[in-house]
Amino acid sequence: MIKNYFNFIGIIGLSVLFFGGCSTYAPFKHSTFGADPLIEMDSFQEIDLVRLLDPSSTVEQKDYTSKTLEEAFDKFYEETDLEKRKLNRNRIQERILAASQERCEEYVQYLDKKDSHTNFALGGLTTLVGGVGAILTPASTVRALSGAAAILSGTRAEFNESYFANKTIEVVRKGIEAKRKGLYTAMKTNQNSALKDYTVEAAIKDAVAFHGACSLSGGLEHLADSLQRAENPGLKGAQNTLELVQHLRETMDNGNVALVISGLEGPIKVGNTQEVTGKTGGDFSILTPGDKNIATVIVGPTSRTATIKGISPGKTTYVLQNLGKRTYKLEITVENEFDLKNIPDLTIGMDNGGHGLAIPLGVDQKRKVVSSDELILRENPAQTNTTQTTLEPLSPGKVLVTITNEKGNQAAQFVTVKNGFPLNKINDLKVGKNNDIAMSNANSKRKVKSTDEHILGADNSDSAKITLIPKTPGKVIVTINNDDDKKAAQIVNVENEISLSSTNVKVSTGKPATVILKTGTTLKNVISADKNVADVTFKAGDNTFTIDPGTTKDKTFVTVEDSSNKKGGILVTME
Length: 575
Description:
5 domains, alpha+beta, single chain, 10 helices, Immunoglobulin-like, flat
């Protein structure tokens, strides 16, 4: 008995020395989890965005306001060397990413320490107490120590379950790294893009998202598809894996594996909304969207609610999914709030002398008719009265028409608009580059019309072709009448070849406008189409010019040509 006692004391002493030595022996600036950072962390991780954008700023950091930041962004774009500005954008992004990487390493080491310290202590004590129980002989002592070992072992298991879903730190780390690697790869690709396609604001936004990916939840998202544990092979490993997945599902679903949605009460009326809630299943997202022309579903900021809005009559199904990969079919029916006579497909130039299709509504002075795209279809006010509305087709496409009656109820329908004869597609046009449309035969009756001659003009003096003349950026509808007096139309987009600080300016007496050429080139020529409305003052070789008000209140356009012979247009209004 005495011998066993001394053996017990010896084991306790060795164990204390073993555990204590682990915590006190630290001659160098590192631990078993890795070396300390080479760079002083506080200063390295501090991001002064104002200084990054504008190194010349003299404002003290304590005095920063939202205006200070906006001014710094403006200062960033004053750099005229586009390649230098692009390099500065990439350097700002990489500086934020470097600080994020340093802080993320600290976070992952923290998780490692929390996991390892607790497991090491509880595991070591379990081994110690169980070993002593095997050495000592009295039955009561053995039972007590064995029970203590079981309690410690169970405590260790509960810690792993509660904090880290049964030893998932390695996978959490891999999940974080994989997610951030994908985001970084996308950013490196974007860093080759021009500033107009990837602004400094977008670069900073992506860097912030990259930092946000360093989280326990981000790693656990990856865990569901990446269960990789080296220990517990065979049947035991399979059992542990099944228990882990079940644990994750129950944790993410607040104790409920299935996703159940409540709150959808019968059909949804057009224009109305209903909110549904995840009754069980926790956070969810849209796995498979339904027909957005019938209903839209927007998941709320808590990811446990969703708002459904009725768009047009019909049925559709959205498939929702929670974090445990359980799905729910949200079957939606949308109905009109009042009967609406079916609107047939419309043809440009047909019906009511070319003014559109008259739809009877009954006596209703409070009604409202809205088209989702008035470049395709609009209500013709000249042909509309209190008992009917006239829908005027303007260009081919599909548009949603929503009508509100005198009671505030809504009814909607999608309407298709077609051309009266085939028309070849007209591609986007550039200012300064005319586009010829060949006619299949001489057609003295044909007529070409643009909805805004200041954006796009048309010349049909040649019977064999039509010439479109792009003047300023914007969208217009080009309508062509053929020799059978049928109509065909298309929405045409006009763009500048060069980048200007403004493409639509207003001038008035004593108030000229200054425009900046932002492409890194210089001015070659600037011409006003009507000097009575607006004149220009410029100097070849500069990158700014002035638009001066004329004497006539009207609209005109200004054409700008740079040193590389590229052109741009500006719409000018004299007020």
